[in-house]
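Re-running the complex after MR caught last week's input typo. The corrected sequence lines follow. Everything else is unchanged.
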Amino acid sequence: MKAEIITIGDEILIGQIVDTNSAWMAQQLNDIGVKIERIVTIPDALDEITAALAAAEKRADVVLITGGLGPTKDDVTKKALAEYFKCGFTFHADIEAHIARLFARFGKEMSKLNSLQAELPSACEPLQNNQGTAPGMWFTQNDTVFVSMPGVPYEMKGLMKDHVLPRIKSTYALPTILHRTILTMGMGESWLSERIAEWEDALPAHIKLAYLPSPGRVRLRLSAFGPDLGALAYSIFTEERKLTKLIPELIYGYDDDTIEAVVGELLRGKRQTVSTAESCTGGLIAHKLTSVSGSSDYFQGSIISYANQVKIASLGVSELDIQTHGAVSEAVVTRMAEAVKAKMQTDFAIATSGIAGPTGGTDEKPVGTVWIAVAGPNGTTAKKYLFGQNRERNIEISANTALNMLRKQLI
Amino acid sequence: MKAEIITIGDEILIGQIVDTNSAWMAQQLNDIGVKIERIVTIPDALDEITAALAAAEKRADVVLITGGLGPTKDDVTKKALAEYFKCGFTFHADIEAHIARLFARFGKEMSKLNSLQAELPSACEPLQNNQGTAPGMWFTQNDTVFVSMPGVPYEMKGLMKDHVLPRIKSTYALPTILHRTILTMGMGESWLSERIAEWEDALPAHIKLAYLPSPGRVRLRLSAFGPDLGALAYSIFTEERKLTKLIPELIYGYDDDTIEAVVGELLRGKRQTVSTAESCTGGLIAHKLTSVSGSSDYFQGSIISYANQVKIASLGVSELDIQTHGAVSEAVVTRMAEAVKAKMQTDFAIATSGIAGPTGGTDEKPVGTVWIAVAGPNGTTAKKYLFGQNRERNIEISANTALNMLRKQLI
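Corrected-run output:
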């Protein structure tokens, strides 16, 4: 059972948007045992689209196509599909009515261009798009299924969940793949790899290991292939247990866990609360925490003290400490954590103060120097880190590291 | 001058990471007039890599390859390159010394695996990687150039800037493409398209228009093709001026501008400052503002008042207002903006309070209801919005809309 993804869009080929759809689709398909063999991005051009469809039909059982279905003139996917499947167009009154209802919900009138979105290649079976105006289309030819979906991520996701995934599951006898990803923080890829080399070398042949590094983290993905789901689950379970014994302090979660969700669950379980006082992370820790639905159960609030004046006025940092030690110091970050904890009456508090860069570094405190403090019921811990040169990366790693410091106090 | 990108990595095909590299490379190449015709993602498998190289060689002048160069066992790109170019391996002592220096800088010892990264296919010319341990590799065969780079984004970017882009520019006579992107907020794609239809229909044949919608925004990309850069620039300039007259209130920036950078520049120009009081956006506005280097010139700080208790204690919101109008109300959001403005002594302040979802909605205030206030020297403006059902999208659109409300007060 092989699948391919075709992404249509000049905007991707000139680099104006990042193709996040393919990763999401690939993940969903992998979860049900469909292997993605290839992802191809091509331009909004009729010939390129029909050529890509022909090439994919030779290789794949399922071809998922996104993009080029907008109401505007630069989108040609529908035309290309009609040409490839040698058919005309059919107008679907029920789809037009659905589009009109979507507009009515927002108190707006349907535009003429949107009404035309109800006209589809006659060879397709339309798939209702509950999130937007462009319907999905399902085609079958020579035992290959082609599904065309809009490129807008939440519309594509709705169509996948409502129609495409259930249909693929019921149509095909799917092989068994089991993935398990162990999420680690605190050690680079090379050292981690040396530390677990013996375990890695002894992995059974049907289990594959991949290292997936990203700023401040390395994810270890185990993939097991075989006929029997139970046997795969057992062998993954066994290997994971061995690995956990080797690097217990580095593991912060599994699979799609995020550090903010892991911390949130720990806080919820203990009925405890958190606040943050952020300087160099500028609100990213608060944003991460609140991106988790239900975070109001444990997150109270933050004081983002970017300016020293705010550190002094809102967090009671002493001017003398700033003069003596600098804003990026143990004294200041400790005070920030303790002050916000008291002010917001939380059980824990995180504080950060650092030099994100690219400017502001000195010999003594180069760009990438970050102090992080966690205040809790048993006192406050502060730690100095030296990250890299890149501002965006430094902010991201600081936020993740701070959340991980809190996690360690919660376990 | 045609280029293709080959991304190697199982982690992309199983959807565990999003391929952001291709978009960045495509953008850089487009800027110098190189057209990306295709982006292909394939697995970490020897046969697939050599087959993709062979296919790309037939079509492209330049083939950029990323991924599969890590020190660990699952990476096979070097092996595949040696096989494709029918060569052995050469050990480069100077590269090993460079890797050792990188480790020394962080006070660590080079691992054995990293030392092996100095062994490269003999057919390549090595490209020094100043950001990491895996060197780039430059191959030429039958008039096609192949460049292999690591998949770690900042390492790839360093190699592109230090070696690949300058070399491509000096090697090829590049054709002329000029892009100009006009960034709009406040009107959906279909309505915008109807509003500018007459202008769009009258565009000269050598200018192409594309609509690039994303949450809360539509970017309009003009691309001009032709022999003479000056003529292209003049025709883009002319069309942009006509468009600006049609939708002046919708345009917030151009090309790679972000709303946070635009707002930051406006504040800096006026020597004015801003603070935020965020409930539903949970710190995202502060994070966006501080993601801009130099933002300490105008951003003072924020109070993230997620819990009502924090709204009351830290922002002086009245308990009665919360009881009478609810936390998501004009009264509360107005008070939040004015309080943080006074507290942080800024010229402007932004406040948000809303129901991001998926839970917490009522008939009167469904999920997606967001109040945004901007307080400034001439008083406070508050506005109610109804966004959608998706939490992440609602937070993102709320932050962008709030920044745009501030922008309008600054122009």
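None of the earlier attempt is carried over here. Chain B has three domains: 2-171, 188-254, 259-410. Residues 2-171 of chain B form a domain with the Molybdenum Cofactor Biosythetic Enzyme; Chain A fold (CATH 3.40.980.10).
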